Amino acid sequence: MARWHSCNILQSASDIRNLWQFSAGGRIILQREVANLPTEPLPANMVSKDWQTLFQPKLNVAWLPADKVFLRVVQIPKSDPAETQSMLELQLEKLSPLPVAQVVWGFELLQPSGPPDAMTTLEGEMQTAIVIIVPRAFVEEFLGQLETQGYMADRLELPLLDQLRATNVKEDGAWIYPGAGANQYSCLVAWWYGGTLRNLSLVHLPPTHNRGELLQEQLTQMAWAGELEGWMTFLPRFNLVADEPTAGAWKALFKPEQPVTVVRPLAAQELAALTCKRATNGEVRTNLLPPEYATRYQQRFNERLVMGALFALLVTYIAITGAYIGWTQFEKIRLDQKVETRARLGIDYTNTVRIKEEVRVLQEQLDLQFAALECYKAVADHLPTELTLESINFDQGRELRLNGTASSGDRDKVLDFMEALRKVEFKSQPLFKNLDGPRTDARGPQLTWAFSCNLKRADE
User: Fold this and answer.
1) Does 301 reside within a domain?
2) Would 135 be classed as within a structural domain?
3) Which residue among 5, 164, 235, 447 is least packed, with the fewest CB closer than 10 Å?
């Protein structure tokens, strides 16, 4: 048994189309109600089925118009549902007004009603079955109309059965249900005797002034048939199951000496709730929906799920592909920007290095100028008067060469001069890092001397 999550009941046989949605997971609770014109579309979110239906099963039920249905009451021995169906199927050719191949049929079982002392022996041995017979052509046409509205029915039900079940039958007689057809002057007549439903008849009265006489004629014929069958033992009491306006119109069709009791009927919403309860209670019963339609609807549902899954997969693939392409394009733009930045920075770097070298050269030239001046100043400050400086050579800003003469007895002065230059400082650092010499050559009374000094560079 399917555990139904929700149930839709559609009434489409009137000028206003009604759709009720009930929760069927336990208590029958009305969740939503929609009333619109037959030309307006049904709410797709209520009637359509999608992948969520796999986890929350939804039952779509449609009410058949009562004026196209044939009803028969049969008393059969009590048995299990499968055997009951077989017994009714054997009697179908006798019960059906049309060839069996041209009809769709089903049945509902009724429990005896009325006070215990009114029960007959049928209660213990027999059961009452209402056989519902519908022309197949009408069912196919009706289902085609529902399909155009997007409503795929899982079951076809007759609301009159729920009204019949809900009627509290306390006495024997005829129970008349007006409005069973296309107009208010069509009715269902149920005959209860001995606490058992004996006969069901749909009566259609034409729109003429003598419809009361026609109703009396129909009721008389049914009473005669009941007398012949032996279940009618006294004149019937009539009960009108109708609202006050309808009951007022129908009372005029009865004779003054015929007492008529008015019983309030169930509202359409209450009937829909009973239909939902009956359709979802899990009992085995025949369905007025042809099996081939049920199979076709199931195939459509499966195909829609597969197509939906494929479409979702395609959308996901397109989304992932689009995201990948977008990401690659974004990364390409970033790469192009980085390449462009690298090229620009490369030019800037080259220019920076060139400028740095130019600055270094200029700085070296400036440093050389100051170094030469410092060297000249150091030589001028520390050159002894006994020594004669013949030449001073400043070689590439790195080496200072000094050449001069002195008397042969002033060799120590040359050494003192070298030592004085060794101690000269510039910006708190030695001006010379090492000195090479002296180189002396004595020729007679004259002494020739020479030595070199390596400058200490700032970058060293």
Assistant:
1) no
2) yes
3) 235
Residues 116 and 220 in one domain: yes
pLDDT, mean of residues 168-187: 82
Q: Please report how many Cα atoms fall inside a 13 Å half-sphere around the Cα of residue 70, on the Cβ side.
A: 16
**Is the CB of residue 249 less than 8 Å from the CB of residue 186?**
no
Per-residue pLDDT, averaged over 350-354, amounts to 89
Check if the beta carbon of residue 4 is closer than 8 Å to that of residue 49.
no
Q: How many domains does the chain have?
A: 2
pLDDT digit string, tens, across residues 53-68: 888 889 999 999 888 8
392-399 long-range contacts, Cβ below 8 Å, gap at least 24? 394/368, 397/364, 397/367, 397/368, 397/371, 397/372, 397/455, 398/454, 398/455, 398/457, 399/452, 399/453, 399/454, 399/455
Residue 229 resides in a domain: yes
- pLDDT reported for residue 141: 93
Q: Are residues 284 and 420 in the same domain?
A: no
* Domain with 155 in it: 65-289
Nearby residues of 9 by Cβ (< 8 Å), 6 or more positions away? 19, 20, 21, 22, 61, 62, 63, 272, 275, 276
Let me know if residue 372 belongs to a domain: no
| CA-to-CA separations, 261 to 180, 184, 237, 437, 455, in angstroms, rounded | 19, 18, 8, 151, 137
Instruction: Report the pLDDT value the prediction gives residue 117, as an integer from 0 to 100.
Output: 45
User: Domain end: 289, 318, 340, which one?
Assistant: 289
Tell me the two tokens of residue 36: 């619109």
